[in-house]
Design a protein that fits this description.
Blueprint lengths: L2 H12 L5 H8 L3 H13 L19 E9 L4 H11 L5 E6 L6 E7 L2 H10 L7 E8 L13
Helix pairs in contact: 1-2, 2-3
Length: about 150
């Protein structure tokens, strides 16, 4: 990856729908050269996917809840069963295997406390291998980055 690739990625991280003509102007390359580089960045996996970022609040999803999940054991079968089950629930926005007091950290997106109560009862406590969950409600989002610093 060179300085042109980094420049292309910086532009696309701000607006993934930037036309190649505009992208070329911003990074100092022709549109066709940009197209080739973007194609290679996708092929190599540097660009994993392109998405639209939705304003969660405008859809009534006001609450982010951070959940620490501790499993009954750390056997590979238990971890795999938990991770596979997490993939099935769209309310779970992020899931990280952790080192420390809990095994996983989840970010849940929901409408409010009542909606979270449903998620807690119907989903979280029924995930395979779960021994304990600790819930932390976010008061407000201060910062959320999607762009990686290059």
């Amino acid at each position: 990856m060179d300085e042109f690739d980094a420049a292309i990625l910086n532009v696309l991280q701000e607006d993934g729908q930037t036309p190649f003509s505009e992208l070329g102007e911003q990074v100092g390359l022709s549109p066709s050269a940009c197209h080739k580089r973007v194609k290679e960045l996708r092929r190599s996996g540097v660009i994993a996917q392109q998405v639209v970022i939705v304003d969660e609040r405008k859809l009534g999803m006001e609450t982010s809840v951070f959940v620490q999940a501790t499993l009954k054991n750390q056997r590979q079968a238990t971890l795999s069963a938990f991770e596979n089950a997490v993939l099935l629930h769209r309310e779970i926005m992020e899931c990280y295997l952790m080192a420390g007091l809990s095994d996983y950290l989840l970010r849940i997106l929901c409408r409010d406390g009542i909606d979270y109560e449903r998620i807690h009862a119907d989903i979280l406590t029924r995930l395979p291998g779960v021994d304990r969950v600790i819930t932390n409600f976010s008061i407000r989002k201060v910062l959320r980055r999607t762009a990686v610093q290059l």
